[in-house]
Amino acid sequence: MSIVENLDKIKNSLPENVTLVAVSKTKPVTDLMEAYNAGQRIFGENKIQEMVDKFEQMPKDIQWHMIGHVQSNKVKFMAPFVSLIHGVDSLKLLQEINKQALKNNKIIDCLLQIFIAKEDTKFGLDEEELKSLLESEEFKQLKNIRITGLMGMATFTENQSQIEKEFRYLKEIFDTYKIVSADNCQIVTLSMGMSGDYQLATECGSTMVRIGSSIFGGRS
Fold it and tell me: Which residues of 4-23 are buried (b: 16+ CB within 10 A; e: fewer)?
């Protein structure tokens, strides 16, 4: 099936309130343009340099999402144009994003990553860390970032009940914190689910899915 057919099939299977991030990392601009010409406007990359290169070559109505683990020293390269940074997991990183956003005279939207998996390789805050971050004075002083939601990645396993348990746990945390309303924090987005588990994720309440291989095919 073509990229356009894959995209149509996925869009038709998603509930109306769910945002599709087309994960385009390692894929050439020609592939991204096929998706763009079929109406896709949100693309996710995990390497800042690659995202910058694509941003420079592609139409300017695209929303670029950084979905990889972010190193503080690289934030400045994407600050001028990034729409949403997924996977923010520390106050230190938020402070750097805030600093670079200020330099660019803008507010950068971020998702806080919550650790829900049974694997040490995944990043994220636990529930205690999330609570103390949002309540801290340092966080409240950050005027150039906005926390718009939470994200999490389930354990890499075939065990569907394990994945479902992790998604439902993240949804519980999301429901607890979506009442938090501050100038720099309105938690409305719950980003969970990728190519292999996005249908389960939307059943569990996800409002944003990150799908790559099911659109563009496997990565070489």
Answer: eebbeebeeebeeebbbbbb
